[in-house]
Design goal:
Radius of gyration: 43 Å
Number of strands: 0
Largest sheet: none
Structural class: mainly alpha
Number of helices: 2
Shape: rod-shaped
Distance between the termini: 144 Å
Strand content: under 5%
Helix content: over 70%
Length: 96
């Protein structure tokens, strides 16, 4: 084999080795990937919290509504009692 053919063969071998090294190496990890993964985990945690909060909403709404309805009913009962007392006084005054 001539010198030129040997040199060409050596260059091809070096190129093949470089290509194999480039193809077999592990790509570097992307720092943005870790940040995105942490963001997704935080979103998952927040979603779980929101779902748990949503499950308790009907009970909390019922408790708040019940308290308000009780207060309104008490106010109406007091107003009705006042009207009945005034009516009773008027009827008593008319009866005299």
């Amino acid at each position: 084999m001539s010198l030129e053919a040997t040199l060409l063969l050596a260059v091809l071998a070096i190129q093949a080795l470089l290509l194999a090294a480039l193809l077999l190496r592990r790509p570097p990890s992307d720092p943005a990937l870790a940040t995105c993964q942490q963001g997704v985990e935080r979103q998952g945690e927040r979603l779980g919290e929101l779902l748990a909060e949503q499950r308790t909403l009907p009970e909390r709404a019922a408790a708040l509504t019940g308290e308000k309805l009780a207060a309104v009913a008490l106010d109406q009962a007091k107003a009705l009692a006042a009207v009945q007392a005034a009516l009773a006084e008027r009827l008593a005054a008319d009866a005299k």
